[in-house]
Design goal:
427 residues, alpha/beta, Purple Acid Phosphatase, chain A, domain 2, seven-stranded mixed sheet, six-stranded mixed sheet, 17% strand
């Protein structure tokens, strides 16, 4: 009887161990769902670098940014992330206003609060973060120079946010590979040109050939091991609107089509980007039929103050977007900053059209400017839907050109949806 009881006990133990074994493998990898958040283009300017005065007022007029508002927006987002407790927070560059060392230090203090809540954070630099020759403090009557940081200092400061525990590091750039879990890797691409800075930062970006080779080798290894690879970079990997490469090439990496093809064919599923300050998702299908998505997130320094909360599974990525629309004592935040963005966009569009020096009547210039401004305002928030005001602007512009325009059939937003969508992963 004793031996029979012992046998039953042993079988029960084996069964329990087997169930635990299965449970371990069921919960490892993507199957357990990874909660991922994304913020970008914070342009954080530390409070120690500003004081009331003409220098700060001039900066805020030129940029449309109120420093107190931006700090409140960031704190609101970080508080929400603390409540949501994602497994992972991705920050895709332009962390600081203009590369100020003090701003990096101040921002890192805020990140440590999230780290204390066991939220893992991974960062990549933007074009405003490293070796900025004209980093400024805004105190008194005139802006004054302040200390910036080198690429070596960046990796040291942000060691706890990706660099110190990287699975692999690229020797040619600040790109690195992070292991999310046993079946998910994240390729963190450095697409910036900070080593070329002389008098100011360079907006455009690129993937160095050596970095691309390094990434392809990793993707090949991941394919052999059955590992899903996602990516993040500051600059856009692909177009998010018609003719973006022609009109805004500095917001895409150089040779974007070729690089998007290569990365899609090598197995990269999704890349998280920023830089353009717009909330948009687009997909690219390579000539071989492989699909890659570029999930671009809008800036936390500008309307519409967007950030992403996502769930990653073995079948795809479910994306939800949140917007900061109001603050305590500032219920009209979104409306006020939309108006500010409209004013700045109109000024930029007018200057750009003047620089192009294309022969057009004043009425045509005004009509085109109106179209550009209205399209920009709906594009930055995502899921562009043409309202009647927009359709009227398009028709007026077409009338100035002496042509007809069917505004109802006009398409400006590339698929898929931008703010709430599930992106399927093809095997």
């Amino acid at each position: 009887m004793k031996s029979k009881t012992c046998l039953i006990h042993k079988r029960g133990t084996i069964l329990i161990l087997f169930i635990l074994f299965l449970g371990y493998y069921a919960s490892s990898g993507i199957a357990g769902t990874v909660k991922v958040a994304v913020i970008t283009d914070i342009h954080f300017l530390d409070k120690n670098l500003v004081a009331e005065g003409e220098a700060l007022s001039a900066y805020e007029r030129a940029t449309g940014r109120n420093i107190a508002d931006l700090h409140a927006v960031l704190d609101t987002v970080l508080a929400d992330l603390t409540r949501e407790a994602p497994d992972l927070l991705l920050i895709t560059g332009d962390i600081t206003n203009h590369g100020e060392k003090q701003s990096h230090l101040g921002f890192i203090e805020k990140l440590r609060l999230l780290q204390n809540q066991r939220i893992r954070i991974l960062v990549i630099p933007g074009n405003h973060d490293i070796n900025i020759p004209d980093a400024k403090a805004y105190k008194g009557k005139q802006a004054t120079s302040t200390e910036t940081i080198s690429k070596e200092e960046f990796t040291e400061l942000y060691g706890p946010f990706g660099y110190s525990d990287a699975l692999k590091r690229d020797e040619s750039s600040l790109s690195y590979l992070a292991e999310i879990n046993e079946s998910v890797w994240l390729l963190c691409f450095d697409t910036n040109r900070y080593e070329e800075h002389t008098t100011k930062s360079i907006t455009s970006g690129r993937l160095l050939p050596e970095t691309l080779d390094w990434a392809i080798d990793i993707l090949d290894e991941a394919k052999d091991k059955g590992i899903t690879v996602l990516g993040m970079m500051h600059h856009g990997l692909m177009e998010h609107m018609p003719y973006q490469a022609a009109f805004f090439p500095q917001y895409l990496i150089d040779e974007w089509e070729k690089n998007a093809d290569l990365l899609a064919d090598a197995g990269l599923k999704v890349v998280f980007t920023g830089h353009f300050h717009a909330n948009d998702i687009t997909m690219h299908t390579s000539s071989a039929g492989n699909v890659i998505y570029d999930v671009e997130t809008a800036s936390l320094a500008q309307y519409p103050f967007a950030y992403r909360l996502m769930e990653l599974t073995d079948t795809g990525l479910s994306i939800n977007t949140r917007f900061v629309t109001s603050l305590p004592g500032n219920p009209d935040l979104a409306a006020r900053y939309r108006d500010k963005l409209e004013t700045i966009t109109r000024r930029v569009a007018e200057n750009r059209l003047e620089e192009l020096d294309i022969p057009m009547s004043q009425e045509t210039v005004e009509a085109l400017t109106d179209v550009i401004v209205k399209l920009s305002l709906i594009h930055v928030r995502g899921d562009e839907k043409l309202d009647q005001e927009m359709k009227t602007a398009i028709r007026l512009f077409a009338d100035q050109l002496g042509s007809e325009a069917d505004a109802d059939s006009f398409s400006f937003d590339f698929p898929p949806e931008d703010n709430r969508v599930t992106l399927p992963f093809r095997r």
